[in-house]
Design goal:
The chain has helices at about 20-25, 50-55, 75-80, 95-115, 115-120, 125-140, 155-165, 190-195, 210-215, 230-240, 270-275, 280-285, 300-315, 320-330, 335-350, 375-390, 395-410, 415-425, 425-430, and strands spanning about 10-15, 30, 40, 60-65, 85-90, 145-150, 175-180, 195, 210, 220-225, 245, 255, 260-265, 290, 320, 355. The protein is α/β, with parallel strands linked by helices and about 425 residues long. Strands 2-1-3-4-5 form a five-stranded parallel beta sheet, sandwiched between helices.
């Protein structure tokens, strides 16, 4: 039996065929026009199927039932790009049971996401952010897979690791052990991970428990895992695979059972290509991969985040004036949420009282310069940040092209033809999507 059991589950049913509705009902799916998640039955070979999916896509998840076998080619992927969360071919009662299990899983994840703790710990309701949280909650609660969190600095990777640990369903779960791989001294790396015995090396005046041993029964979070030397990756691989290790200076094999979460802001695929990151190590740490969006990809969350940071600093936080709200939405955040939090705290510390944050509360260094519209500061900040990181003009051009394509596809609801017309480019270029960065 699945973790969700066999309880009734509600869904919006956009299903016309009585036999299909009856089979879903027998499997425990109850029709409800107000349910969060939807089941849509379509003929996947119909050219208008993707438009029907787009018309129903919303904050909940959409399961598409194809009443005919899905044609070879791009049809299934097109339905997913249009907003479907899953696409299955109808084959009678067995499919109905599968749909019911899927809906129960989605419902369980939604219940966890709606917990006050989760909503307060990782603030945001933008679609891209909710999608990441759904994946994280599902990985935490229903799998024991190693999790790799990627994303730019300041996007909240450590907080997401904490959430995954907190929601882990293992009985008698122990603590979260955090190790920043970028701060490990190479000569002491063995001691950090494996521990050591007294006298194992000069200066080892007492035995030490390493990270693997400390994490037994809990979670080991390796932050900045992309900084690990290749030789150390090889040493860690055995522990991750077998769960056994020796302390430095000991012949005794020890066991440790832990969930592994890793995080990086590096491109590990590029690292594999140039030999700085082992492919076998990568595959072991990436049972589930979560890419955290940058703040520029979730601008709808900027104001809720600022209000949350104000609330942390003040019991009764002031409201934002329209002008300050506009500035916050247009500003660039090279440091992402960490950058936004620092700005919010600088503003609230300058505030001298009253119900509203005014322009005077914004630090002078954060105000638009003479003749510079607030809307332009975001682009300026992004360019300056990229130049500081060593980007060339070609890199900047690629970044702008990717952002333009991404924005056009979002505005066109994923329709490559409309996006291509907006940008004046060939349809195949738009249909290719935005390459992963």
């Amino acid at each position: 039996m699945s973790p969700e059991g066999t309880a009734l589950v509600e869904a919006r049913l956009e299903v016309a065929a009585p036999p299909v509705r009856a089979a879903l009902r027998d499997a425990g799916v109850r029709a409800s026009p107000t349910a969060r998640n939807t089941v849509l039955a379509v003929d996947a070979s119909d050219p208008g199927a993707a438009d029907r999916v787009r018309g129903l896509a919303g904050p909940g998840r959409l399961l598409v039932l194809s009443t005919v076998p899905i044609p070879a080619g791009d049809t299934g992927w097109a339905l997913l790009r249009a907003g479907a969360s899953d696409v299955v071919v109808w084959a009678g009662a067995a499919t109905a049971e599968l749909v019911a299990r899927r809906l129960r899983r989605w419902h369980s994840v939604d219940v966890l996401l709606d917990r006050p703790y989760v909503r307060e710990f990782l603030v945001g309701d933008s679609p891209v952010w909710r999608a990441v949280l759904r994946e994280a909650v599902e990985a935490a609660r229903f799998t024991a897979a190693a999790v790799l969190i990627t994303g730019e600095s300041g996007t909240g990777k450590e907080r997401l690791a904490q959430l995954i640990h907190d929601l882990d369903a293992r009985p008698a779960k122990k603590k979260l052990v955090i190790l920043d791989c970028s701060t490990i001294v190479p000569s002491l790396s063995g001691s950090e991970f494996f521990g050591h015995e007294k006298g194992a090396f000069t200066g080892a005046s007492a035995p030490r428990t390493g990270a693997f041993e400390l994490a037994d029964g809990g979670t080991l979070f390796l932050d900045e895992v992309g900084e690990l030397p290749v030789t150390l990756q090889a040493e860690l691989l055995r522990v991750i695979q077998e769960g056994t290790f020796k302390r430095v200076g000991s012949n005794l094999w020890r066991k440790s059972s832990f969930r592994l979460i890793c995080a990086t802001n590096r491109d590990l695929a590029a690292g594999q290509a140039v030999g700085t990151f082992r492919p076998d190590f990568f595959h072991r740490i990436s049972g589930c991969t979560l890419r955290l969006p940058s703040l520029r990809e979730r601008l709808d969350d900027v104001i809720p985040l600022v209000e949350h940071f104000f609330k942390e600093a003040e019991k009764v936080p002031p409201r934002l004036s329209p002008a300050v709200r506009e500035l916050l939405l247009q500003r660039a955040y090279p440091g992402n949420v960490r950058d936004l939090r620092a700005l919010a705290l600088r503003i609230i510390h300058r505030h001298l009282g009253g119900d509203e944050i005014s322009l005077g509360d914004v630090p002078e260094a954060e105000r638009p310069g003479p003749g510079v519209p607030a809307a332009d500061t975001r682009l300026q900040g992004w360019v300056r940040d990229r130049l500081r990181r060593g980007a060339t003009l070609a890199d900047l051009t690629v970044g702008v092209e990717e952002e333009a394509l991404r924005s056009a596809l979002i505005s066109a609801d994923g329709d490559a033809g409309r996006a291509a017309r907006t940008l004046g480019i060939p349809v195949p270029r738009a249909a290719g999507g935005v390459p992963a960065r």
